[in-house]
Each structure stands twice: as structure tokens, then as C-alpha cells.
Specification:
about 70 residues; mainly alpha; 3 helices; binds zinc ion
Length: about 70
């Protein structure tokens, strides 16, 4: 019974983690804005691999913020 509850909450955690949230551009950062604009353009054009490319670039770039 207890195990089942633990299992359920683990499943919920996985579901809420997937898909991973998209990186949000940091206000005032030119590079973030640029990548977010690029991502918006890719999405508008139906270029989903372009969108995920931008997400990867944004995420990688944002590591430098910390
Ligand atoms: Zn930035």
C-alpha cells in the first residue's frame, strides 16, 4: 500500500519533468533575446528541430549566467 503511493508520486514527478521546460530568456541579456527570437521564428516556420536547437543553445548559454 505504502509502496504503491511512493510509486505513484515517482510517476507524477517523471510526468511533470517531461517534456523539460523551455529555457526562458533572461531580461536584459542580448544573447538570450536573440536566441529566443530565433526560436520564435523557427516555431512560426514549423521548424521543430530548429526550435530544439535554440533550446539547447539557450540552455547552454544560460549556464554562463550562474
Ligand atoms: Zn543570456
Amino acid at each position: 500500500m505504502i509502496d504503491e503511493v511512493a510509486c505513484d508520486s515517482a510517476r507524477t514527478a517523471v510526468l511533470t519533468l517531461w517534456p523539460p521546460p523551455e529555457p526562458v530568456p533572461v531580461e536584459g541579456c542580448a544573447r538570450c533575446g536573440e536566441l529566443a527570437a530565433l526560436r520564435g521564428r523557427a516555431r512560426a516556420g514549423g521548424d521543430l528541430s530548429g526550435v530544439s536547437d535554440c533550446n539547447v543553445l539557450l540552455r547552454r548559454h544560460q549556464e554562463g549566467h550562474r
